[in-house]
Give the backbone structure.
Amino acid sequence: MRKTGDPYISHCIYTGKIVAVLVPSNGEKAINTVVAGILHDVVDDTCESLHSIEREFDADVAKLVAGVSRLSYINQLLRRHRRKNVSQATLSHDEANNVRVMLLGMVDDPRVVLIKLADRLHNMRTIYALPYAKAQAVAEETLAIWCSLASRLGLWALKAELEDLCFAVLQPKIFHQLRADLASMWSSTNKASNLRRISAKPSAIKQYPEFEETPEGEEENLSMKVLLQAVLPFDLLLDRKKRIIFFKNLEMCLDTPKKPKVVRDAGTALASLVVCEEALERELFISTSYIPGMEVTLSGRLKSLYSVYSKMKRKDIGINKVYDARALRVIVGDKNGTLHGQAVQCCYNLLNIIHRLWTPIDGEFDDYIVNPKPSGYQSLHTAVQGPDSSPIEIQIRTQRMHEYAEHGLAAHWLYKETENLLPFKNSVVDSEIMVSSDFPNQIEDQDSVENDPFIKYRALKSGHPVLRVEAGHLLAAVIVRVDNEGRELLVAVSFGLAASEAVADRRSSYQIKRWEVYASLYKKVSDEWWCEPGHGDWCTCLEKYTLCRDGIYHKQDQFQRLLPTFIQIIELTEQEETEYWCVVSAVFEGKTITSDVSNSIYEERSSFNSNSTLVDTGINHKVQLLRTMLQWEEQLRSEAGHRQLNLAAKKYVNGDSVSLDEVAIVCWPHGEIMRLRTGSTAADAARRIGLDGKLVSVNGQLVLPNTELRDGDVVEVRM
């Protein structure tokens, strides 16, 4: 029996059910993962052995169960370390070595992590059965370690539930107050008039107390068990049908006095999301402006209360300024990428529909399709005043963009069987950015780098490429003149250059050809001496655009009226900017792009690509996962020395961590992980493989034999 009074088998079954939500619905790997989830405690808590598991099931299941058992070592190690080594702030060498062995094993089969996270999630759902002090310790550990790992692996919905369960245990009063405030804000009965627009400027904010310890044994009206019931299960946010059924069942008891208010408030929050979903669904159903035949699906989510509170503290804003506390996501089908360009066009059509349905909030539109995040994430984000006059964030993306953003590293690397080329060196470098930034959830905070658009666009200059958006029509355009310190732009639009395909593959290797299109348009305008709005010919026209308070450049007609048509500035990376102006220079000088400029710009990429062989993308995924695990390892070492966690803003420093005096690398092309001494060189790696004296490439580039290797490097010894 468990301490909750339930049979122990219930924990195993619930763990298996949680795993089933996280893995694909079919396939041998997925089935074995669920089976191992049910059996994850058998070896540790019964007289059964791994041999008997392998005999009754198979070797794959036994391997997963063994991996989960080893993974539990993290908890034991950290707890024992804090208890015994009060004066020691870091792990010992042996402890650190054991952690690394375990983490490298997780890289070989990340399904172990899914099972462990499912195990921890169910334990957190029933943590009320533990003594208060122990429950707090487990919640702190979960928030610091397992929420972090779920985040790094891209398991956003599970991470959100874990965070709120920890938040309810560690800060029950703040949890309860936030739940009540959001329910009040989203309750239609508390709304006055329907305001037409919300200003994005700061307002008076309600102050919440800092995180502080709740006195042990303090009697409150709300028990921990009740607060945990007010945390919505993560699978409700993944499955709309489950959400509607759950809501209907909850609706019958929302007005029942016996039901605690905090639970009724959770129901109110869910109800507000369902209302928004249904309102948008009706509008999309009756609207004929999006492309016929494109499959459009709708989903929603509630931001975790822990994330809401963290954002309020970080940005010093009130709860009514957390515009993404609830969000809807619209996904446009692209038939496995074959209609990606049309799907992108549909995304902008849908944006137009939503802005007609609900009033946009000033300054809250972000176009990550035109300007992808460093991780490659693409989506349209806008915040609007929903049907209850409260803010709601809307995200619009294609199916391909959604799969890239939402699968999570563990699921994405485990179950993708397609073959592809290893990405260019730049892609491998980008993966470091992606994993090191804790994978900003695409529904999480999407703050602009620069809040003031007038400052942000002051550096614009003539010739810069932009995108003209009118409903769902995307056209290539280029800035001809910048006036009034960037507040007004004269833009040349080419009505013969549809840009939806170019936008869909912004980071592709063919981008240099698209830069040539923009450069040719700019040269045409310069050669013709067109310099005023209205100038142009049958396929090119100059238009005036003004930067408005919503942070967008809107078209201005001859009567000085602002129109819905707008342009989106294409924000170039440092490398893209160099490439683009190289192309512009070549076009103005009359050079042939493909033979001269393209070869010089892509010399390094071509060199790397010519030496690459066709391999499973799982190898590149393994590289990224290895780097993720190595970074998480540093956090674990730091966590071992923490006495009290700063829950408002956890920052991990590894300057005092014990050094293992080794590096872990990935051997190309088979993906074996090799551990070498710190300071080992490319020649040492070749010698270890048995190919001493051969040429060695590191991360796709040929290097000198004395080149020092680093954690996470991809090493190939040329035959």
User: Anything to note?
Assistant: The chain is about 45% helix and 15% strand. The first strand starts at residue 296 and ends at 302.
